[in-house]
Amino acid sequence: MSSKSKTPESADTAASVDPREVANFSAMAAEWWDPAGKFRPLHKLNPVRLGYIRDQAASHFSRDPNRPGLLKDLRLLDIGCGGGLLCEPMANLGASVTGADPSRRNIETARVHAREQGLEIDYRDTTAEALAGAGETFDIVLNMEVVEHVADVDRFIATCAALVRPGGLMFLATLNRTLKSFALAIVGAEYVLRWLPRGTHQWDRFVTPDELARALAAGGMTPQAPVGVAYNPLADSWRQSSDADVNYMMLAKKPGGA
Questions:
Q1: pLDDT at site 9
Q2: pTM to 2 decimals?
Q3: What's the rounded Cα separation, in Å, for the pair 54 and 47?
């Protein structure tokens, strides 16, 4: 995100957690909030991710996307939250936010930054499996840029689906497994442009929209059509796109609820 099953920086491992990925992201924990650092791509992605979450949540829960406190009275989980780049905006929108990450160093970074911003966020160094085992459920689960780093995608998605309350939502963002994504997300982003450290991603772990949709359906969710995310080099910004060949987002709904 060490070939050993545990590291001092991580919570107890679970079936979907790859300790090597946890160790990778733990080593970069202190840089999460540097917009020009190793997580610059996520800072650049945040506006398009936040817009998608805001608009889809507003539509689903019949709320005005422009009103303050849009997510008030909703319980939200950001699984694989890292340093809290999505948790803080969700808290500012009024949600009761839980941020979970198996890297203790990431969680410590997130806690310190939230405290500096005067935000109350329930950060936990834990896993989806542990939360599901404790019977936790949420109105919204964010699963953003995580599935390409887990050891068992189908099992991880099933576990995350169990965390969504009836009538709730899961938001996902990941990388498609195409030749185009290999050229742009691996060769381009890691070797040519050096946006990310080499080895951040493994192309064979990228997940196609069809594979993700099947895993969601198997977990009792109703997946929606994917939305592509494309980079505009002239504006140095990302936008929603019909092209899902590299980056894409997906919404899934849990049937039921009031």
A1: 42
A2: 0.84
A3: 10
